[in-house]
Amino acid sequence: MVNKSGFNSKEVCGYPLSxxxxxxxxFCERFSYxxxxxxxxxYFKYFLRWDDDLATSIYHTFVALCYLTxxxxxxxxxxxxxxxxxxxxxxxxxxxxQVAMAVSAIHDITDTDRDGTPNNMTFHVVLSMVGLFLIAxxxxxxxxxxxxxxxxxFGDHQExxxxxxxxxxxxxxxxxxxxxxxxTPILRAQNCGIYxxxxxxxxxxxxxxxxMVVALVVFIVGSGMYYxxxxxxxxxxxxxxxxxxxxxxxxxxxxxQYPSREHWMDWAEDKYDKLLIxxxxxxxxxxxxxxxxxxxxxxxxxxxxxxTLQATTMDGNFGAIVIQPDQMQxxxxxxxxxxxxxxxxxxxxxxxxxxxxxxxxxRMTVGMFLAALAFVCAAVVQIEIDVSRKHLTYFNLxxxxxxxxxxxxxxxxxxxxxxxxxxxxxxxxxxxxxxxFSRDFGFGSSYTFFIPSTLSLGSNCQESITGxxxxxxxxxxxxxxxxxxxxxxxxxxxxxxxxxxFSYSQAPSNMKAVLQAGWLLTVxxxxxxxxxxxxxxxxxxxxxxxxxxxxxxxxxxxxxxxxAYFYTYIDPTEIxxxxxxxxxxxxxxxxxxxxxxxxxxxxxxxDRSDDEHYKGKQTKM
Length: 621
Ligand SMILES: CC(C)C[C@H](NC(=O)[C@@H](N)CC(C)C)C(=O)O
Prior knowledge:
mainly alpha, Growth Hormone, Chain: A, three-stranded mixed β-sheet, three-stranded antiparallel β-sheet, 18 helices, 8% strand, Solute carrier family 15 member 1, transmembrane helix, transmembrane, POT_fam, peptide transport
């Protein structure tokens, strides 16, 4: 197959062979990222011995940083190194970061007294922070480049294949993350060490590090097959200067005597290339459309926080298996793996058969609506939970009625709060008397125990002590969270998979990675909104907070649908080709009148709003 720039690539079933290396690379990279992330908080808490607050804030700062760094990687790729080299260099940085994390988790390195705990905690803290910084730089930096680089491999005539690629790309993300979030916690639970055996964080970080090396090797192996678009110089610098000039020129010509121009960017025409101006217009149009999007991620990312907390107040007993609250999150990638193929091969073609033009922006709007619906479901489940029980833990509510005529001291064994069925052992002490008894608790239940007056030295506490259930264990089953997971994931498929492809297809050739980074920036902003809204709103009931978020997203969804209605799909390649052709025509010394006419037509083309999008023509929402 001959690609856009005359590049000849090998094909398998109509797809460039190079794509195989890119999707495998993505699978391994996401395995590496999500695998490391799965055990990170526990590493902070139990290895570095940080308190919950510090562990949580450093964790969220790290995640936010991972979505802020894409802009750096995109600028480097589009302006300087090109996507291929940027991916290689930043993957090396990334792999070093992962190795640093694995090394930082080897307690033996500083365990000079061999008691199983590190003696120089500063070494472990510094090394892990350096590691996390490098990982954030690497994962964020390559993220917009890998997606855009994959898109680059397709010719202009392969729009359908390119769309399928973005779906498969998303499947790989979720396949990799699902596998790693299952595997790394198992690795962490192993015991390892030279002098003493401890929980094996080094292995839990080491395997993701190895997978990142595999990702890099796979990517390099495909090297000879890739189409590598050349960077066009300091494009971001030019963009900023051009926008700055347009604004200042517009300001200088603010008086009524100057005729107005169709678009404020047209004020840069006095100095800048018309092609660059057209490209900036394309990017600004899409970025403007992105303004409401962070709200989707605000809701989406609460799966890991609010929804997991909700699950802790539910019954996870599924008969043969007991599901832990944090394990419920794996429902998302599992559903992605099933819903993406269903959407692509059944739902979308069916909608098309019905004669409906389900354009990318319509899909994204429906995706937002589904996410709002997911939060309505979460609110209903929350009300159900609130009605079924009034107390979150049985700890404070477990009481003893002492029937003896002397005081009894009661202490209890460690209780694992995330287990659904908890076995607690109580130790009774009163003078010479000392005995113990154990009971199983359903999570969330509360008991009153009666210590009989007949209890004496040698009594069997296990048999003598009776209990009454004051508060029943969690009765609302975790399966009730499935509808909310279903809706949020269906929303994600419509919103995120489509948005990924939309960001690629609407970006000018020299700013593909930059627009991918803009897309990822909406994820970062969404995460900040969670903190702000939850802090400002401070609602007394959890279900009201869910309703608030659902309403906010619904409002945003309406605003977005209006904005989308006025959006005109473009084919950047076509527009760029027209402008380039025009530059060639200049050399033929065309008369001025003719040229002006052509430019007018091109401008109109850019803003026109008819025809359908997927034929490479322009269309509205
Ligand atoms: C832009 C990202 C938030 C998209 C993507 N995340 C997912 O696909 C999630 N369904 C993964 C799940 C394990 C949270 C990513 O690139 O990580």
